[in-house]
Amino acid sequence: MVNCKWLIGGLLVGLLVACTMPVATAVPSTPFSTQPATVQPTPTLQITLSPSHPAMPASPTPSPAPDSGWELLQAGLERRTIRLLNDNGRQTEQLYLLRIDPALFAFRIGYSPGQPKTLAAWQEETGALLVVNGGFFTEEFLATGLIVVDGQASGSSYVGFGGMVTMDADGVAVRSLVERPYQPTETFAYALQAFPMLVLNGEPAYQNADLDAARRTVIGVDGDGRLLLILAQWGGFTLAELSSYLASADFGLVNALNLDGGTSTGLILANPPESIPAFVAVPSVITISPK
Q1: Are 174 and 220 contacting, i.e. CB atoms less than 8 angstroms apart?
Q2: Please, which residues have CB within 8 angstroms of residue 278's CB and are 6 or more apart in sequence?
């Protein structure tokens, strides 16, 4: 028979041991995050200038002077550029002028009937210092007025309108065909007709109302006998406006004749190299070379 005292004592010891053992507690697992990690931006270094050293504004690009004045390119050849501005200061036209002393330069006409050439081709062929577009021409690239090359005349003279530039050993002359009509007995080394006259005896010569502004090429002579070439390359002038402007400007023009314009207006200067591009090939040009 089991001793009940010992049995009861053993049970009591077992219970005491069980009460003093640590109880295992389930630790929940850390859930896996599907959200991407947030990337912190890299700090940017910011520099604040001291009030004693304020930021200097960038210097504005200076605008060219509206009028360059006459600039000597070489003996007997001067250039002038003029920017014409409206009342708001906005540019409306760009003028390019050359003033040439006939004592130092020779003037000629180049003519290629039916076979127009670019100004670059004319310059390469003639070797001229300066090439500028000539007079008006037909769809067949024939001069609409009289033209004289090396003393040989071709075409028919305008009657009752227009003007003529003549070139010979004595220099260059520009005249009105109304004031002084062409006579078949006249002889010239070179001559070219165009229209209309823009300045006659220092006064505006064309005051007909017109609204057609276009690029313009003008040839004229001043009171000292110098030849002026004037190109309005932006197309801002009507003929009446240009006539009034030329007569009132300080160019000293006595007579000035309008040459072909629009897409024909163009010029090439070989030295210094400068050009105003013509947009079409032309059958006639005026060439200028040192004597």
Answers
A1: yes
A2: 118, 119, 133, 263, 264, 265, 266
Q: Give every CB contact of residue 32 below 8 A, 6+ residues apart in sequence.
A: none
The answer to whether the Cα torsion of 240, 241, 244, 249 is positive or negative is negative
Structural element, H or E, at residue 246:
helix 239-248
Token pair 């109880």: residue: 23
Distances (CA, A) of 210 to 47, 67, 148, 214, 239: 62, 27, 31, 11, 7
Between CA 160 and CA 180 the distance in angstroms is: 10
Using alpha carbons, select from 230, 206, 208, 233 the residue that is nearest to residue 219: 230
236-291 tens-digit pLDDT: 999 999 999 999 999 999 999 999 999 999 999 999 999 999 999 999 999 999 99
In sequence order, the 6+-apart residues with CB closer than 8 A to the CB of 279 are 263, 264, 266
